[in-house]
Amino acid sequence: MRSLITSFLDKLLDLLKMEVVQLVKEYKLDDQNIKIDPVSETAVTVSFGDEINLTIHQQVQALSSYLEKNPFQGFVEAVPAFTSVTVFYEPLKIQGMFQRPSELVCSTMADIVADLKVEKLEKGREVVIPVCYGGEFGPDLEYVSSYTNLSKEEVIHIHSSEQYLVYMIGFAPGFPYLGGLPDCLFTPRRAKPRMKIPAGSVGIGGAQTGVYPISTPGGWQLIGQTPLQLFLPNQDPPSFLQAGDIIRFQPISEKEFGLLREEER
């Protein structure tokens, strides 16, 4: 009897080991930059590379769009990020004769990605965001100026002369992650994050720039503030900005800020 129990436990241990191995197994395609990884019992992540650029963004959007339009059995949702898409599913709704749900989903993703047609995305909506730079609205503008060896006027001019693509919305409700910040403005995040950042604050964090749509803790260097309300929970969609939008910042005076703020109320 003891030997039977021991044998059963050994087999159970082997199965558990196989499950662990399966969980960390990495699926690769012909394109060595694309990887498919199980990240839990209910999700897998498809990564298209490590670099944030328009080509990878188009791949991310193409896969997300395909899955939303052509969901497989057990599909829950696809969550796009800068360079990847995490696909959530219900394991109990996925059936296979000899494969685990995670293995089946990874295999399905590999087939989809291999045949995925990545079309050039249509030009997104252009949005102009008014920003009052510096002073009480941008308390870190002076630090950014010092770190980049640019005058405050140069920082404002460069930051407001570029167009930025909204890669995704995340971290905080309505928070847009933007691509396109010029290298000369790259500035590290604050060593000690602020406990509360005013809604509408425009900041720089490393190689990115963005706008805090709601009041929240954060560690980005604040260079200005917009009077626009970018997140309204009672609207559909609640976020004013969406992935694919093209953003341009327009400098305004404190007086203009006050007038626009009144209009927003």
Could you characterize the architecture of this molecule?
With 265 residues, the protein is α+β, with helices and mostly antiparallel strands. The protein folds into two domains: 23-115, Gyrase A, domain 2 (2-Layer Sandwich); 126-264, Beta Barrel (Cyclophilin), CATH 2.40.100.10. The protein has six helices and 14 strands. It has helices at 2-24, 54-69, 101-114, 141-148, 152-161, 254-264; strands at residues 27-28, 35-40, 43-47, 75-80, 84-89, 126-133, 164-169, 176-179, 194-197, 201-205, 208-211, 216-218, 221-225, 246-251. Strands 8-7-14-6-13-10-11 form a seven-stranded mixed beta sheet. It has a five-stranded antiparallel beta sheet with strand order 1-2-3-5-4. It is elongated and about 65 Å long. The termini are far apart. GO terms for molecular function: ATP binding; hydrolase activity.
Give keywords.
265 residues, alpha+beta, Gyrase A, domain 2, Cyclophilin, 2 domains, seven-stranded mixed sheet, five-stranded antiparallel sheet, 6 helices, 14 strands, elongated
